[in-house]
Design goal:
Mean pLDDT: 93
Bound molecules: FE2/S2 (inorganic) cluster, cobalt (II) ion
Low-confidence stretches: 206-210
Order of helices and strands: EEEEEEEEEEEEHHEEEEEEHH
Distance between the termini: 22 Å
Shape: globular
Number of strands: 18
Helix content: 10-25%
Structural class: alpha+beta
Number of helices: 4
Strand content: 25-35%
Length: 332
């Protein structure tokens, strides 16, 4: 089986590992690219992340607690402040020198889009920019971080693939939809994404749900959509309705290890903010559950060798993602 978690290149990227609200103050345990980290927050809101292993006898710090902004090891009480410096060894008399090796080696951590992001190495790129985050006419809707028993490589492959809609998404929007996928032209999309843009004409049923272009009165609606990726594992789908409303979905896959992943998605929407957030994302969540149920039946990592699987015309976006991903791993 192909493996990617030890790739030094991937260590230079940022990954969403938890909701910001879940680390308040923590300590939370997260696993990224095969390694465990402890993450906690001090009363000023400042995050610290470090390998989840106490320098004293290797107890998991995430099993400890946070007091006055410091994480306390549950085994012998070594105490670490924001930034990882060890500030207390309870067994040593007050004023004793703290061994330099008692301090934690921290990793980069930050909040963005309501999520905690970690970069385990030296960042070579930033977190993908979603300009709507700073636009007051949009609201952001966050969702839980779920664990999917599938490889992040298979998730991205799925998120860029529309030919599974009539088969996997029969419980949501896919029932009876056209199976033939029109020719796809790949292009640079705004904000650094790469993928494709297309128009979809849909019937607007009387019982239009909140998720489907509320308030439009025409029978037939055209939606301008796009789907794209930023390496390694970030996907974005955008939908612009005729009403001018945008529905932007950021789909985030984080490799826990080669074959286990965190999944969360973030929605931005410039609606009138009247519909409850839960109602707006209920449809997207149901779609995600259908993908999860399918992907968890697939074994291992998506083979890096394109010849190991058959690809057809509709796979163009995911084939291109795979080509670029393999190139990234090779350091090109
Ligand atoms: Fe953490 Fe001893 S193992 S204080
Ligand atoms: Co799907």
């Amino acid at each position: 089986m192909d493996t990617f978690v030890d790739s030094p290149v991937l260590a230079g990227h940022w990954y969403a590992v938890a909701r910001s609200s879940e680390v308040s103050p923590g300590p939370a345990k997260v696993t990224l690219l095969g390694s465990d980290y402890v993450v906690w927050r001090d009363p000023d809101g400042q995050l610290t992340a470090a390998p989840d292993r106490c320098p004293h006898r290797e107890a998991p710090l995430s099993a400890g607690w946070v007091t006055d902004g410091c994480v306390v090891c549950p085994y012998h009480g070594f105490t670490f402040e924001t930034g990882g410096r060890c500030v207390r060894v309870p067994s040593s008399p007050e004023g004793s020198k703290i061994p330099p090796k008692a301090h934690l080696s921290t990793v980069h951590v930050t909040d963005r889009y309501g999520l905690v992001w970690i970069c385990p190495g030296e960042p070579t790129v930033g977190i993908p920019d979603i300009p709507q985050e700073l636009d007051d006419s949009y609201r952001r809707i966050n969702n839980p971080v779920e664990v999917w028993q599938t490889s992040a490589t298979r998730m991205v492959d799925n998120f860029l693939d529309i030919s599974h809609f009539p088969f996997v998404h029969t419980g949501t929007f896919g029932e009876g939809t056209e199976t033939v996928v029109p020719k796809i032209e790949l292009e640079e999309l705004p904000d650094g994404f790469y993928g494709y843009a297309y128009d979809v004409t849909v019937n607007n049923p009387q019982s239009a749900s909140a998720a489907s272009a509320a308030k439009a009165t025409t029978k037939v609606l055209t939606r301008h959509m796009s789907s794209g990726f930023i390496l390694p594992f970030v996907c974005r789908s955008t939908i612009r309705y005729e009403t001018g409303m945008d529905h932007i979905l950021l789909l985030l896959s984080t490799p826990v290890d080669d074959v286990t992943s965190y999944f969360t998605f973030v929605v931005w929407r410039n609606d009138d903010f009247s519909a409850p957030a839960d109602e707006i994302v209920a449809f997207d969540r149901a779609i995600g559950a259908e993908d999860k149920a399918m992907l968890e039946q697939l074994d291992g990592v998506l083979p890096f060798d394109q010849q190991a699987t058959v690809s057809v015309q509709s796979d163009k976006p995911s084939v291109e993602w795979r080509r670029r991903f393999v190139k990234l791993l090779a350091g090109d």
